[in-house]
């Protein structure tokens, strides 16, 4: 484990990564780096120093990160996500702020995710990261650093989805809410959040052996994803769902829209089932169904902090202890491959303090 020698009592009050480099003699640290410039996958654990990090941010000692589908894309040449190479992936992180960041003092436990992290600048799969000050979210009371990354970008996306349905007027009395891709990071956290709020949750999954996992999170019914994967169905079908959190997209989303109750809504954030949406206008103009797009990458920082405060309170997902699985940097290659193949269940959280 890398130790910086920094403590809140002795931390310099000046800000800026260059100052830290000079004061703390450029500590080296472990990182998982991917080179996507070629045709073959080239990635693994390397040693870096703070000189390798961007000088326009404040330094964070990273304790935890997590693995998202976007990280899998960013770590492969065919993913077309990474905008620099080589790069440290990891679109989210949680750790200790080593320099003042605006109204957030050094020594604060913080979260950072989205924006260009792990896409156009080195991300969370390293023991240190440089983060622009206006991307910093102080860790809310009620969450630990590991908890924050079990939730992570996926859970934050789930929270935005659940809030969108609530704001649309869908209540636990409105009827069952469907969650597609329910064993994935967004889906499993959405199941836990909705169940914790008292909703009747139907979970759609292609992994029948994970039924106990979904039931423990609060799902009241589990259906096979194949029932929503058939193409060429009628423009409208019987109304079943008060609303839905869709993490899949494609044909699945099109079929969900056909089954949503009059005036209901679908919060959509995923495209693992494809980016095309083969549907008609019928659900929208005959049943008043709303399609609510969910973006977790560019949310303004004030809104981001508000949502995290809710995640720590009324939106804290049920079954949080069941969703997270701890891994190390050395496990990342295998896990990133698995997530792109749809083989992940719950959330893989990366322990950056593990040697």
List keywords for this structure.
355 residues, alpha/beta, 23% strand
Account of the protein in words:
With 355 residues, the protein is of the alpha/beta class. It is built from 10 helices and 15 strands. Strands 3, 4, 5, 6, 7, 14 and 15 form a 7-stranded mixed beta sheet that branches. Strands 10-9-8-11-12-13 form a 6-stranded parallel beta sheet, sandwiched between helices. Strands 1-2 form a two-stranded antiparallel sheet. α3 (145-167) crosses α4 (185-196). The longest helix has 23 residues, at 145-167. The radius of gyration is 21 Å and the shape is globular. The protein starts with 16 loop residues before the first helix and ends with a strand. The relative contact order is 0.15. The model is unreliable at 1-23 (pLDDT under 50).
Shape: globular
Order of helix and strand elements from N to C terminus = HEEEHEEEEHEHEHEEHEHEHHEHE
The end-to-end span amounts to 5 Å
Secondary structure: helix percent = 25-40%
* CA radius of gyration: 21 Å
Work out the strand percent. 15-25%
Structural class of the secondary elements?
A: alpha/beta
The chain-level mean pLDDT equals 90
How many separate helices? 10
| Residue windows where pLDDT falls under 50 for at least 5 positions | 1-23
**Total number of strands:** 15
For the largest beta-sheet, the strand count, sense and barrel status come to: 7 strands, mixed
